[in-house]
Amino acid sequence: MESAPDGRAAGVELITAEARADLMRAKRPKRDLPIAPRAEPFKKRLPLADAARPQDQVRPVYAVWEITLACDLACRHCGSRAGHARPNELSTEEALNFVQQMKELGVREVTLIGGEAYLRDDWTTIVAAVRSAGMQCTMTTGGRGITKERAEAGARAGLQSVSVSIDGVEATHDRLRGVTGSHQSALAALTHLSEAGIAVSVNTQINRLSVPDLHRVLDTLIEKGAHSWQIQLTVAMGRGADEPEVLLQPYDLKELFPLLVELKGRADKAGIRLWPGNNIGYFGPYESILRGSMPLGHTLSCGAGRFTLGIEADGTIKGCPSLTTHGWAGGNVRENSLKDIWELAAPLRYTRDRTVEDLWGFCRTCYYADECRAGCTWTSDVLFGKPGNNPYCHHRVLELEQRGKRERLVQVEQAPGRPFDNGKFEIVEEDWPSASETALASEVRS
Prior knowledge:
alpha/beta
């Protein structure tokens, strides 16, 4: 592998240069699907339990609130297939009432997302209300419409930090975000936000196109003065399920994790917090390096419905914003209070009740089963239609390699094309390539 001028690895390529070039040139999948389908109205009268139990007294410290599904990008990995606003999104009055309900439930930080949060005319009013309620307020954005004026308006409202999405160098980023010029817009957004006095961070999707660019993304963070970098594996949900060849294969984690440790070292020296997302794991040899700052020094099992709260723009409540609406919606704040939905809805109780007996496949037999409980619920649920078996696990990859085996995901059912939809995948266990086959592949790749 080539080295960069400072001696670090120039990048990891998980597929050949020719295959990557073909993916970079690939047009959107030729399927009769709208780029931005209309979301369905919220499901009414979802059942609630009669009473709360002791384990339902946990409180979310962190809420991620999609305040609109309207979007000005067309990201190829977007799980929500954002573009158009939802039918009957919360009014300003309803949104402000909801802010008070979050405060009363004990939420400490609210991150506004979309779509693009700034496409709501009252987004700064919502920011100001969150801050007035004593909660921290941050935002995640693709940055295309973060003008100098919008950045200054956010600062006046009390917006504390904004995470801007950057997924690679310009060509890679624009390919993944679906709009030419989106990389330049994201860089401009970082500048506008910083000049307005708002702290900035960056979030990055990790997939077979972005991995070779990760060191250069970190260069950008250092240049722009970002305080944190959240990284997360691209998941087979929404538009992400339409291009499975862009997704990592589980066995790619063997090469990815040493790279992440290298990036962590550079980030530490630059004073940047590297924040692995909830689907980067679990319990491999680098866990204490990547998550050593956590209270236990390692990851915890899925926090959906325990520490985190997800809100859709029409008032639908989920335990995690990434989870599909179908199957994971606990209720709607137009019909029940947030407290009642949090305590009494079965989908939000899932991780409070989950045991090892709910796991299956490799995860059911794993040494860390009771501690991890299959990690990210979202990742396994959208792959297989049920949670409890997550092949994107570094420990699992290395354990299988010791047996001479690896897992490959094969899509057997396409996603239908609705917001927050998913297809279906199967796991194929196969022999790990021999050392000679790996050397030949590396030779071809170089």
